[in-house]
Design goal:
The complex is a heterodimer of chains A (109) and B (115).
Chain A (H helix, E strand, L loop, with lengths): L2 E3 L3 E5 L4 E8 L6 E6 L6 E6 L3 E5 L2 E6 L4 E6 L8 E8 L5 E3 L3 E6 L1
Parallel strand pairs in A: 2-11
Antiparallel strand pairs in A: 1-3, 3-8, 4-5, 4-9, 6-7, 7-8, 9-10, 9-11
Chain B lengths: L3 E4 L2 E4 L5 E7 L5 E7 L6 E6 L6 E2 L6 E3 L9 E3 L8 E8 L10 E2 L3 E5 L1
Parallel strand pairs in B: 2-11
Antiparallel strand pairs in B: 1-3, 3-8, 4-5, 4-9, 5-6, 7-8, 9-10, 9-11
Classes of the chains: A mainly beta (109), B mainly beta (115).
Chain lengths: 109, 115
Amino acid sequence: GQNIDQPTEMTATEGAIVQINCTYQTSGFNGLFWYQQHAGEAPTFLSYNVLDGLEEKGRFSSFLSRSKGYSYLLLKELQMKDSASYLCAVMDSNYQLIWGAGTKLIIKP
Amino acid sequence: IAGITQAPTSQILAAGRRMTLRCTQDMRHNAMYWYRQDLGLGLRLIHYSNTAGTTGKGEVPDGYSVSRANTDDFPLTLASAVPSQTSVYFCASSDWASGSTDTQYFGPGTRLTVL
C-alpha cells in the first residue's frame, strides 16, 4: 500500500528553526509537495521537489532524498503566522497526489 | 472572481437528501479534483477530471458523482447523503498535462454535516 508519515504535532518558539519530516512509501514517485494549511482554510502550495537535494525559498526550505523515501521542510526565523498544519504529498506513478495527515505546528512566543 | 470558488461555504443536511457542491475556476486549468478532508486523515481524492468531458474515480468515490460539462465547472453530487459523508470538501485545479506534475490550487472548502 501507499503511505505517507509525518508527525502529528510539533511545537516551536518564535524566532527559532523547526524541521518537519515526511517519509513515504508509494507506487512510483513523480515528485513531493509541501503545502501549508491554516485552520479553517484551504491548503496553499509551498514547495515541490523531484530531484535529491535542498530547495530554498526565503525562510522555507525543502529537502528530498529519493533513495531514503524522505523529505523535510525547514522553517527558519519562525513567526506566529507560521502556526498552521503542513501537509506532505507525493505524486505517484499515476500522477495522483497521495497525502499525509499533516503536521500541526504550534508557535509559542 | 479569481482562482477557485466553492458553494456553499457550509451546509447541514438530513441523511437521505441529495446535495450538489459547486466548484468554479477561472484559471482555465484543464484538470479539476474533489477531495475530502477528515480529522487525522490526509486529503483523500474522490473524483477527478483531466479535461472537460472526462472524469475518473479517486480513492473514495462511492456515494459521489461528478460531471465536467465545461472547463470551469466541476460539481460534486451526493445522491443520498449518509452521516459518514460529514467532512470538509475541497475542490482543486491544476494545469495538468500527461506526465506533468503541475501544482494543484485549492478552493476555500465546503463544510458539510450530514445528520
